[in-house]
Structure formats: C-alpha cells, structure tokens
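can u do me a favor
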C-alpha cells in the first residue's frame, strides 16, 4: 500500500472521520484489486461491508452500502427509491428499463493491464468528478464497450456500476423497439429524459439493435429516424451525475457518426495467454488441481473468449467432482476444450 494512503487512513482513524475512513478503505480495496490481489480485495471488501452494516444498524438507519469514495453510493433499496417511477411503454404498459440490484452485479474481471487501466480511469474520473468540475473539466460520461461475444462487455458495465456505486438501469430493447416504429423514438427520449434526472448508470446493452448503420440498405425510413433520434439524444444527454454505457458486438457496421458521440471507446479484447491462465486457475481455485501442462492447455484454447474459458474450467471442475476425486487433471480440461471446439 502506498505510504501516503496509509498516512491518510491513519489520520482519518485518529480523527474518527468515518466518511474519510470509508473512502480510504475503498481506495485500499481498489488498489489491491488493481494489483491483481482479487482474493484479498474481496476479503477486505467483506470486512468493510460488515462494519458499515453494523454502523448503520446501530445508527438506526439503513442507508449507505459499501462506498467507493462516492457520496452517491446507495443501498439497492434506496437506489430504487431514488430512481422513482421507471419509464414505461405507454401502449404496452411494460417498463422500458430494468434495474439490476447491486447484489446481483458481477464485477470480477480479468483484463490485460492496458484495458484495466482504461476502466479504472473511468472509475477514478467519476470519483473525482467534483474536483474535475471545479476546474471546468467533465469526467468521462459516455462510454462505448465493443468486442466479440463473451469478452466481458456486459460484465464491464456491471463492474463500472459496482465500482462507482451507481444503480444500473438497463434499457429493455425488447420493450423499446415497438412494432409501431414511431413509438421507438419517443420511448428512447422518455428513457433518456428520466435517466438524466437521477444518478445512475444507464446501460444500453447490445445497442446495435438501435444503432444500426444508416448506410445499411435494408434499413429505411422509420429506422433512419430512430437512429437519428438516438444520435441526437446521445449528443444532448448530460447525466446529472451518472454514466451512460453502451455495448455492442459490432464495430465496423456501427454508424461512424455514433462513435464520435462517446467520450471513451473501449475494445474489450479476448483474453491473452496470461489472462487465460489466470481465469482458468481462478475458476478452479476451490478444487485440487493435479499436474497440468498449462502451456499446452493454453495453446489449445487460443482464440477462446473469456466466457468460453470460464465454461471450460467449470466443466472440468464438474467432471472432477462427478468422478468423486475432486482432483482436476489434464484430461478433464482437454475434454472440456474439445467439447467447446466441437460446439
Ligand atoms: N474479462 C473477463 N474476465 C473474467 N470473466 C469474464 C470476462 N469476460 C467474460 N467473462 C465471463 O464470461 C461471462 C459472459 O461475459 P459477458 O456477458 O460480459 O460477455 P459479453 O461480451 O457481454 O458477451 P455478448 O456479446 O454475448 O453479450 C461472464 O459472466 C464471465 O463469467
Ligand atoms: Mg453482453
């Protein structure tokens, strides 16, 4: 841990400044996580959570959930209350968005250092948004995550919500894209308008269903209008104190005009050899692992997505458990890999 951080933490403890203590403990957790000490970071996070829970129940309130140096961090129930009524499709009367409760957010990601750095920069700018604003600077607000299937785009959005403490509001494109096309644009406006009023992470997963290229010959008339509305809304959107995250599998077919509207574009890559080995070992960590030729295994998994790597490890673990040995061997992994390749 950095000496400066340690000193700040001790000063906060000495002066019983609970707000600063919460903030600094979170910085420590994030620092450890950034170093790849995931297990230690999780343990510290659990300890911090427990003590915050105890504090809030002894205070007779149930407000703050684990903070991330962010004063807007709310408990799931509180964030739902703060969000108020959710926008609803007028004709079908179904919600246009869904809220992912904090306890359901997945947030452990294994990324190459350069990409991890970019995610952390978004989180750090968000935490420092007031200081940035003081100097006339705006934190990165609109983020586009792109990359092939299973590389962690959805996970990336959840991780950003987790680390900023923002409630994650997911746009439901099924409800949004009405068969009455004229309605899609007004649904879009409604969702963005509502979301801009409250601190939240507005998540447009698989946004390509709306943001199709305007040059696509099959898309005509109304769809063009929807895309234009989307571009205009993106331009105008200024979250009060939140983030907008869009995710897509596509890159080339995305409208060029759309790219310009984002403050940050991150390609979430497939895992490299190092990440692949880390994900495998981490997923298998609850079991005993025999002598494995890791480099041979990793070679066989060249080109696998992170989701496929997790699947291989889980499948190998199941094979080991079913064999009652609870010992993962090379064969288990190779069989699981072969199955994915056939699939
Ligand atoms: N970078 C990563 N580190 C660790 N696990 C990952 C990573 N990326 C993906 N996974 C694993 O793969 C699963 C699927 O990832 P996710 O749904 O985020 O992929 P995606 O890029 O959104 O895929 P799609 O394009 O199909 O929507 C996750 O639940 C997680 O188990
Ligand atoms: Mg996804």
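np, heres the sequence
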């Amino acid at each position: 841990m950095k000496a400066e951080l340690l000193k700040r933490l001790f000063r906060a403890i000495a002066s019983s400044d609970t707000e600063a203590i919460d903030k600094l403990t979170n910085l420590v957790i994030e620092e450890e996580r950034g170093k790849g000490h995931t297990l230690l970071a999780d343990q510290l996070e659990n300890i911090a959570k427990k003590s915050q829970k105890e504090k809030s129940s002894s205070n007779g309130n149930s407000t703050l959930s684990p903070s991330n140096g962010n004063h807007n961090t709310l408990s799931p129930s509180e964030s739902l209350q703060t969000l108020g009524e959710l926008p609803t499709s007028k004709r079908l009367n179904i919600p246009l968005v869904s809220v992912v409760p904090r306890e359901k957010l997945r947030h452990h990601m294994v990324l190459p250092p350069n990409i991890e750095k970019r995610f952390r920069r978004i989180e750090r700018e968000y935490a420092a948004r007031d200081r940035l604003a003081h100097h006339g600077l705006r934190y990165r607000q609109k983020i586009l995550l792109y990359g092939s299937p299973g590389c962690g785009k959805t996970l990336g959005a959840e991780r950003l919500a987790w680390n900023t403490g923002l409630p994650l509001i997911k746009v439901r494109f099924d409800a949004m894209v009405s068969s009455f096309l004229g309605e899609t644009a007004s649904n879009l406006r409604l969702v963005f308008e509502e979301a801009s009023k409250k601190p939240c992470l507005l998540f447009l997963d698989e946004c390509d269903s709306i943001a199709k290229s305007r040059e696509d010959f099959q898309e005509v008339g109304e769809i063009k209008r929807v895309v234009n509305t989307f571009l205009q809304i993106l331009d105008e959107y200024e979250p009060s104190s939140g983030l907008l995250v869009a995710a897509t599998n596509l890159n080339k077919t995305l409208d060029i005009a759309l790219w310009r509207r984002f403050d940050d574009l991150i390609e979430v890559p497939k895992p490299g050899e190092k990440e692949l080995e880390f994900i495998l070992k981490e997923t298998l960590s609850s079991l005993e692992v025999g002598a494995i030729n890791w480099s041979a295994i990793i070679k066989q998994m060249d080109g696998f997505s992170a989701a496929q790597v997790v699947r291989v490890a889980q499948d190998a673990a199941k094979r080991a458990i079913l064999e009652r040995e609870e010992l993962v061997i090379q064969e288990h992994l190779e069989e699981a890999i072969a199955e994915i390749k056939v699939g």
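Residues 38-58 form the longest helix (21 residues). hope that helps!!
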